[in-house]
Write a structure and sequence with these properties.
The structure is a single chain. By secondary structure, the protein is α+β, with helices and mostly antiparallel strands. The protein has a single domain, classed as Beta-Lactamase, CATH 3.30.450. Strands 2-1-5-4-3-6 form a 6-stranded antiparallel β-sheet. Helix 3 runs antiparallel to helix 4.
């Protein structure tokens, strides 16, 4: 599941998969609406970590419980990377990904890590529906791999591709602003 924020951390795009999973109708997730679907025991940690990431404009990874449309909760893994205008001067917001955590894992707790990006392959009801969401998932996974291998020199190019993809997702989400900094 793919999402975008603006520079202030307000969600400006949430993919169709998220709405189908939670059973909520667009535009419920926009702004800070997405937090209402987080388990009450995990919500404060997730909101605080998200606010810290927004303030420091750093990548982050979260693990928490997300409410499914039938009212049950499923553990999810979420990672996001900051998005910058080319040349890294203007912060636009975040491009993030939500994936399910393996159901057989026991003893899970909500966690938050700043300065860490760990993309996971989305499967099942978390798998992308649109071609743009699928490309975003793959680029986010590539970014995670490049950052932890000898391919770190490719991060700038991957980030530029993510920027372009984020712009297109924002355009399709009909969320724009007059500054031209569209996500």
């Amino acid at each position: 599941m793919i999402w975008l924020t603006d520079a202030e951390g307000r969600t400006t795009y949430m993919c169709a998969e998220w709405y189908a999973f939670t059973g909520l109708a667009p535009p419920a997730a926009l702004g800070t609406g997405w937090t209402a679907s987080i388990h009450v025991d995990d919500r404060d940690l997730v909101e605080e970590a998200f606010q810290q990431a927004c303030a420091s404009r750093c990548e982050f990874t979260l693990q928490y419980r997300l409410r499914r449309r039938d009212g049950t909760y499923i553990w999810v893994h979420e990672s996001a990377a900051p998005s910058w205008l080319p040349k890294g001067k203007t912060f636009l917001g975040f491009l993030g990904q939500i994936s399910s955590v393996e159901p057989q894992r026991r003893g899970l707790i909500a966690t938050a890590e700043l300065q860490t990006f760990q993309a996971a392959k989305p499967v099942g009801e978390f798998a992308p529906i649109t071609a743009l969401d699928a490309m975003a998932d793959h680029l986010l996974m590539a970014r995670g791999l490049a950052a932890t291998t000898t391919a770190a020199h490719l991060l700038e190019q991957i980030d530029e591709l993510l920027f372009g993809l984020g712009c297109e997702l924002a355009r399709q989400g009909t969320q724009s602003d007059t500054t031209g900094n569209i996500h």
